[in-house]
Structures are given as structure tokens and as C-alpha cells.
């Protein structure tokens, strides 16, 4: 990468990190610095920086949603009920609960984290080991789509 491109990438990363203060969108940052979107995201991943949308959630609504979630069994509510009542998405509620240290049950998951890590490791070496995605899924018990999803999420695919 040319020095000027690296300087522009560094500038884009700084703007990205401070985007809530500057009010710039990711697309505006890319246009201003001349860095393609995928290059910015790659640079962020390489630095281990979280790539999150800059959506503001009303803290009162979020706290209300978390309280309702924690009491949902006593109140006879489902997550969908809470989402409709409060107006905060389920993923935002789950992320907030995780951030607060709550352990969430994974519904329907039929494999352990170690199985997933093994599947990812095998997938990354599948050509060398001469394994198909289907064979890896069978061997580890982790569905193929789940493996692909996690690879994509980790930026490995």
C-alpha cells in the first residue's frame, strides 16, 4: 500500500472511531478520504476495532426493555412482545444484556463452542485436509451455514 493510501486509511480510521462526535457517516468518511468501504472495514478488523452501526438507542427505552426481558416469565411476555411494546430490536436487547454480564441461553444449539472452533479450524485448512464443508459439518456436528456465518462474521471468509 502506498504511503499516501496508508495515511488516508489512518485518517479514515480516526474519523470512523470519532464518527459519533463528528456526525459523519461511514460513506461520508470514505468519500472524504478516498478510501473504499471494504478497505476501511478491513483496516478496522486488522486493528481489532468493533464495526458497529452508529445507531442511537433511547437509554430509557433500552432500560425498560431489559427490565421487561428479565421479568418476562413472570409477566408472561415473549421477546417479540417486548420489541413491539418498547420499540427496541431484539438484537439490541440481547447485546445490552450481554454487555451487562448476563449469560443468555442459546436456543436450539446442538453443539458446544469447542465444536464450532474445531469446525472453523478445519474449514480454514479444508483444502490441505481435502475436506468438504459438508464433511466438516458432519464431523463436528455444527451446521454448514453456521460455520459459514461465523467465518464471515470473523472476517475469515
TrEMBL record:
Alphabetical keyword list: Plasmid
Protein's name according to its UniProt entry: Helix-turn-helix family protein
Species name: Bacillus thuringiensis
